[in-house]
Structure formats: structure tokens, C-alpha cells
């Protein structure tokens, strides 16, 4: 029965870490991220839970003769936004998974 105190202490640490993780994930989900393309002609805003909340397109980039260019700019801005979210997610949440095998 001597090891039970250590086990209880370890369980408390795990529970605290889980609560901390949940809190940080919740904060990350609420945070806004911005992705941009081509001199800010297209700007995409999203949240940490990977929800796109806004797309801004400057009028001068809209060319009815070249819709593919605008499509490419939107895709680039969305991917930039998602990349920014992923980077911060790794920086924020990675500390919880860095020593777990297979993570």
C-alpha cells in the first residue's frame, strides 16, 4: 500500500494537466487568426477551431476576365490562415504531447 500515495499524486497531476489542456484549447478555439495573399488583396479570418469567419477581398483584385486568379488568392489566404492556426496549436498544445509516444 506504500505506493498508493504516489499513484494518487500522479492522478492529481494528470487531472490538473487535463484541465489546463482543456482551458488552453478553449482559449485557442476562440482566438482569431488572419491569413493573407498577394499584398493583402485577400484576407481571411478564422478561429482556432478552424472555422473561417470572414473573407475580405479588395475591389481592385476582382477581374471578371480572370476569376481563376481570385480563386487562387482566396485559396492561398485560407491556407495561410489555417497554417497560422496549426502553428499556434502546435506551440500551445504541443507541450502536452511532446513526451507521449506516437503523438
Furnish the topology, listing elements before pairings.
Blueprint: H1 4-30, E1 32-37, E2 42-47, E3 51-57, H2 67-97
Antiparallel strand pairs: 1-2, 2-3
Helix pairs in contact: 1-2
Function: Binds to DNA and alters its conformation. May be involved in regulation of gene expression, nucleoid organization and DNA protection.
Family: Belongs to the YbaB/EbfC family.
Protein name: Nucleoid-associated protein TMU3MR103_0673
- Helicity level: 55-70%
CATH fold assignment of the domain at 30-96: Ybab, Chain: A
* Largest sheet report: 3 strands, antiparallel
Number of strands: 3
Order of helices and strands: HEEEH
Helix run count = 2
- Strand content of the residues, in percent? 15-25%
Any idea what the CATH architecture of the domain at 30-96 is?
2-Layer Sandwich
Note poorly predicted spans. none
Average pLDDT, to the nearest integer? 90
The coarse overall form would be rod-shaped
Tell me the distance between the termini: 33 Å
| Main CATH class of the domain at 30-96 | Alpha Beta
Instruction: Specify Rg, calculated over alpha carbons.
Output: 21 Å
Keywords: Cytoplasm, DNA-binding
Organism: Tetragenococcus muriaticus 3MR10-3
Biased composition (Basic and acidic residues): 17-27
Subunit structure: Homodimer.
Amino acid at each position: 500500500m506504500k505506493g498508493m500515495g504516489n499513484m494518487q499524486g500522479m492522478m492529481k497531476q494528470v487531472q490538473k494537466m487535463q484541465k489546463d489542456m482543456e482551458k488552453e484549447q478553449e482559449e485557442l478555439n476562440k482566438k482569431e487568426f488572419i491569413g493573407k495573399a498577394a499584398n493583402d488583396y485577400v484576407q481571411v479570418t478564422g478561429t482556432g477551431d478552424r472555422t473561417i469567419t470572414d473573407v475580405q477581398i479588395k475591389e481592385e483584385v476582382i477581374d471578371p476576365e480572370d476569376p481563376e486568379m481570385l480563386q487562387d488568392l482566396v485559396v492561398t489566404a485560407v491556407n495561410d490562415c489555417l497554417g497560422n492556426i496549426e502553428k499556434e496549436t502546435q506551440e500551445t498544445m504541443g507541450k502536452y504531447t511532446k513526451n507521449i509516444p506516437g503523438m
